[in-house]
Amino acid sequence: MSKLPNITTSIFTVMSKMAAEYNAINLSQGFPNFPVDERLTQILAKLTTENVHQYTPMAGYPPLMSQIAKLVKGSYNRTIEPETEILVTAGATQGIFTTILALVKSGDEVLILDPSYDSYESPVLLCNAKPIRVALNDDYTPNWERIEKSCSSKSKMIIINNPHNPTGKILKEEDFLELEKILSKYPDLLVLSDEVYEYITFEEKHISAHTREALLNRCIMISSFGKSFHITGWKIGYAVAPDYLMREIKKVHQFLVFSVNSISQVAISQYLDVVDVNLLGKFYQEKRDYFQKLLQNSRFELKPCEGTYFQVASYAAISNEDDVTFCKKLITDHGVAAIPISTFYSDHKDQKLIRFCFAKDDFTLEAAAKKLCTI
Length: 375
Description:
The chain is of the alpha/beta class. The chain has helices at about 10-20, 40-45, 60-75, 80-85, 90-105, 120-125, 145-150, 175-185, 225-230, 245-255, 260-270, 280-295, 325-335, 360-370; strands at about 25, 85-90, 110-115, 130-135, 155-160, 190-195, 220-225, 235-240, 300, 310-315, 335, 340, 355. The longest helix is centred in the first third of the chain and has 15 residues, at about 60-75.
């Protein structure tokens, strides 16, 4: 008997497979197709002949953990203890999975704000806990009245994603004030803050949970080197949590992966000495602006994008088809792959919206836009 009877093949896998079959331009899956920073590849090449190929300590390579503490201090002015409050993970998804398995018990409830990343629900179900899916407003702002009404004595965790995938929205000061009010009413409620796109923000910087004093003792932050440094295939991220929570998370981590691959940890620890994370937002903003300019004469209506490397677009002026059907025809008839937004909702809410990834080189964006503008 399946433990996840309602979980099917990921929409990202489906669309990428179709894109390959039809030789379509793949703007569906969220991975960059441009070269990695040469400084990082040079560090990696040098390390291949050095003694960095054996297990690191379970929680992470100590110099990398020190670098993460330095990065958090420089980015958010928060001081954290490397040995007790940091865990290097095999990607952000493993960090999320491990955190939920460690902290959520059978019968607990976990609030998930829809549209949501598809990796949130499965670990909740595997804990024999109950995911409570709460829809955001139609403009993708949180409906805090609805969220609070969804809380109960069984509520163990609320998952926030900021900047938000798939919509590109960022949470505002008033959102955190409302979240903190809820936490004051539910003293056992924890926050899992997925901040993998934290350095990919544009006109406004996102407000990190790292900066909220009221959250620090009840929040687990998840970050991604793969997203930040466009090395998604390296599958390396990290979690930050107070010691009493991190002790439990490490118990699961040691039996799930034990330790993350050594050479990537050493490489990133050295790369953090030379890279400026503050330039990442400018780099991706130029990508966003260029993609938006390329599509300005199309029939797609582009929605606001405040962060991430995703652009949500309405096709309501083009077709009345449901978004899954439209995305499949976009591949078969027009040669471009995108992701239907309805698949991020538990009830498959269809607003005629799709998501494009603009983390691509200019040639790819231009070729895709040329096709999209003919629709």
